[in-house]
Amino acid sequence: MDGQIHDTDQNVARDSQRDAYLKGQNYIVLRFPNQRIFDDLDSVLLEIAKAAGGSPNPWLRYHEP
Question: What does the pLDDT look like over 27-38, one tens digit per residue?
């Protein structure tokens, strides 16, 4: 979750360095503004599920027809 504190030039640079390090360690980095999470949680969860390679609906994995 990225709040307003992430908008400063210094924090943008720090976040970029951290993201590059994590990606270098084979992590997937997703950033979401706080307001998007509050306003549209369903789409955020869908994006996380897609990035994780999973189904956005956990029941689909266990109850496939």
Answer: 888 989 888 999
